[in-house]
Amino acid sequence: MIKIIRFVRRKLNIFRFRQSCPILLALMGFITCLGFEWLGQSPLKAQHVPIITSRNIWQYASFPVENFQTYTSGYGYRTSPITGETQFHRGLDMAAPLGSYVRNWWTGRVISLSDHTACGTMIKIQSGQWQHIYCHLMGSIEDTPQGRYLIDRDGGIIIWQGQEIPAGVRIGRVGMTGRTTGSHLHWGLKHGDQYINPGLVIKEMFRYQVSS
């Protein structure tokens, strides 16, 4: 474990990622957060990240959280911090200070906006066969004759449903809307109709940076 952590720290001084430090810092959290059995839950044992096009495809991805601090809940079965019941958590919770900016993981089109569920203020983006979901954002959803949009005035964010968003663009801020006990981004990923462990995707993004 110590050798792995030292290896990652060396990479912090060598590789530059899009918003470089966050992905490497996040991987260190992924390695050292021993409280989560990231790959050990039975529904995840056979899960893998789908091959999209080419082996260097991950250069187009962006780590989704600025000012990333740590993971607070992994993908898989957990005890709900709200109800105390066992549930399957279909995403990765990333803690960051309230108001930290959230960036679009992959170029795509906004297909859904809402602010009336446990997810809080939410953006869902379609990128080919992938869907990426961002929950507990600051701001609210408004409907107009011109369409639906997310508005976060203090953060300078306006996102329209149907809008094309490039990878790495700021799409919101970390908030506490919906059912949450602290400021964090709940990040969900689907490929086709299947939820994917976002931790595996982060691992693949880092693997590309190391091998390129």
Overview of the molecule:
This protein has one domain (2-211): Glucose Permease (Domain IIA) (Distorted Sandwich). It is built from 3 helices and 15 strands. It has helices at residues 2-12, 20-32, 198-211, and strands at 70-73, 76-79, 86-89, 92-95, 101-103, 108-114, 121-127, 130-137, 140-144, 147-152, 157-160, 164-165, 170-173, 184-191, 194-196. The strands form 4 sheets. Strands 1, 4, 6, 7, 8, 12, 14 and 15 form an 8-stranded antiparallel sheet that branches. A 3-stranded antiparallel sheet has the order 9-10-11, with no helix packed on it. Mean pLDDT is 79; it is low at 1-21 and 30-46.
In short:
By secondary structure, the protein is of the alpha+beta class. The protein has 3 helices and 15 strands.
